[in-house]
Predict the structure.
Amino acid sequence: MQSAENPKKIIIAVDGFSSCGKSTFAKAIAARLGYIFIDTGAMYRAVTLYALDRGAISSGIVDEDAVTALLDELTIDFRFNPHRGASDIYVNGDLAENRIRTIEVSNCVSAVSAIPEVRRRLVAMQQRMGRRRGIVMDGRDIGTTVFPGAELKIFMTADPAVRAQRRYDELKAKGMEVSLSEIEENVRSRDHADMTRAVSPLRQADDAVVLDNSHMTVKEQMEWFTELFESRMAELQQ
Ligand code: DC
């Protein structure tokens, strides 16, 4: 699936469970390769945040029709932030990078991401973003639905307790008041919801390579990736 527009650059799909370091890993490999990193979870979170702000979710109950009705007035874009060395997400022009990571958004995002029209719109947007190739896109359905022809697919997993601890440390470092047990519960319930939803459930693509990083440092993951990338590129050149 090499494109005439950009023959040497490929699409790398990074899928997997929540909080297993997909963004950290995907961001690092994009920086290493000079590719663009796209965090599709941030896009589902952005829709959720907007729905919360506009009253389409109240007391944790997601009104599917009300969320769907908001989609026409919602714009999402990414703008590179040189201080972070990564892109920040903007919702209708407002910076939303921190607000999309709250536990309130995390608790509702699986329900929002199960709405067929939400998925249809975001998948179309993601496919447009990938047209120029040279991208690393992380999510749940990138290798199965968004880019089934991606040249390299990685499926990430890690022990749920390790994942909960990582998300706890991340939120604490940002000064948020959170409880480890609440986060662990959220990690497990999102795993369940993501795997059992009707529209593009989380599943490993047949041609994905599994990365279980429960006991791996970021450096070890990068070494693992470098070897995989080189052998995949050699295969593609044959
Ligand atoms: O990666 P994350 O935890 O920030 O993702 C937030 C939620 O969005 C997650 O619970 C599942 C959903 N999601 C999805 O359904 N499809 C994607 N491609 C990315 C995320």
Q: What stands out?
A: The radius of gyration is 17 Å. The chain has nine helices and ten strands. Residues 18, 40-41, 44-45, 109-110, 113, 139-141, 190, 194 surround 2'-deoxycytidine-5'-monophosphate (CB under 6 Å).
